[in-house]
Specification:
The chain has a four-stranded mixed sheet with strand order 2-1-3-4. The chain is globular, with a radius of gyration of 19 Å. With about 140 residues, it is α+β, with helices and mostly antiparallel strands. The N terminus is likely disordered. The N and C termini lie far apart (about 55 Å). It has four helices and four strands.
C-alpha cells in the first residue's frame, strides 16, 4: 500500500502541471472562426445594449446572458429579444469552444468560459445587471 503522502505529492504535481499549462492560455488568440463569432456578437451588441440598460437582460455567472425581467420588454418585442439572447448565447458558447480548440486544449473550455464570465461582468456598464454565483441578481 502506498503512503497517503505519496498520493498527495502526485496530486500536487498534477495540479502544478495543470496550472502551468493554463498559464500559457491565450485568450486573445484569433482564427477565422473566432473573428466571425466576435463580429457577429459585436453587431448584436447594439441591439442588446438597450436591454442591458433597462435591466431586461443581464449577464450570468456562467458566461451567458439571460432575460432578467420580461416586464421590462414590451410584449410585441419579447420574441425578438428572446431570439437575440438565444443567438448571443450560441455565439458565446461557440467562442469559448473555439478559443479552447485554437489553444490546442479543448479541455480548457470551462476555464475559458469562467474567465470570460468574469470579464463580461467586470466590463459591464454601471446599471447593468449580473447574476451572482448564488443565483441572485445584482446591479453594477
Amino acid at each position: 500500500m502506498k503512503h497517503p503522502f505519496h498520493r498527495l505529492v502526485v496530486l500536487l504535481a498534477l495540479a502544478l502541471v495543470t496550472v502551468g499549462s493554463q498559464a500559457q492560455m491565450d485568450l486573445e488568440i484569433n482564427t477565422p472562426a473566432i473573428a466571425a463569432l466576435k463580429e457577429s456578437m459585436q453587431k448584436r451588441h447594439a441591439q442588446l445594449a438597450p436591454h442591458y440598460a433597462s435591466g431586461a437582460v443581464g449577464l450570468t455567472q456562467d458566461g451567458l446572458v439571460a432575460l432578467r425581467d420580461a416586464n421590462a420588454v414590451p410584449l410585441p418585442q419579447r420574441a425578438a429579444v428572446n431570439a437575440l439572447i438565444t443567438a448571443e448565447n450560441q455565439d458565446r458558447l461557440a467562442l469559448y469552444r473555439e478559443i479552447a480548440r485554437a489553444n490546442g486544449h479543448p479541455e480548457w473550455e470551462q476555464d475559458i468560459r469562467a474567465t470570460f464570465a468574469q470579464r463580461w461582468i467586470d466590463k459591464a456598464q454601471p446599471g447593468w445587471w449580473y447574476r451572482r454565483p448564488d443565483g441572485t441578481w445584482a446591479r453594477k
